[in-house]
Design brief:
Layout: E1 4-10, H1 14-21, H2 24-30, E2 36-39, E3 45-54, E4 59-71, E5 75-80, E6 87-96, E7 99-107, H3 113-139
Length: about 150
């Protein structure tokens, strides 16, 4: 089964990275437009990612699912469905040098044509997303396309 794996170093404390990934305000600051996110006291919850005026077609895209695990400053795990079935995205956060090592792992894709396309698109997308996250957290710069 295909998997996605990315790592990036962000020169800010792990607490700041985790807060950005584990809150609606955090996602909407650097990547999405109208994300909603609720974490229950047991570390589970719900996540809806939303992009408006996305791509040259000005589409509105929404996806998301259950938050399976939210461990402050350590891990954030959620499910969404960019392909045929749900996949699981895991963010691990490790203190490293003067900042945080962010390790992203996504599983759940099958070898179907639709899932393979989604996996390729998401592999590229997560690489871009982690770069945007790094630039936002280190420099306060946000790229949002207004078409």
């Amino acid at each position: 089964m295909p998997e996605i794996n990315h790592k990036t170093y962000i020169k800010v404390p792990v607490e700041k990275v985790y807060k950005t990934i584990s809150t609606s305000q955090g996602w909407n600051a650097w990547f999405t437009d109208e994300t909603s996110l609720v974490i229950n006291p047991d570390g589970t919850g719900d996540l809806r990612l939303r992009w408006t005026n996305f791509s040259s077609e000005n589409e509105t895209i929404e996806d998301g699912g259950k938050i399976l695990e939210a461990i402050p400053n350590k891990r954030f795990v959620f499910q969404w469905s960019p392909g045929e079935q749900s996949s699981t995205v895991t963010f691990n956060f490790e203190p490293y040098k003067e900042g945080t090592l962010v390790i992203l792992h996504e599983t759940g894709y099958t070898n179907s044509e639709r899932d393979l396309k989604a996996c390729i698109d998401c592999a590229t997308g997560w690489g871009e997303a982690l770069t945007l996250l790094k630039i936002y957290l280190e420099h306060g710069i946000v790229y949002k396309q207004d078409l």
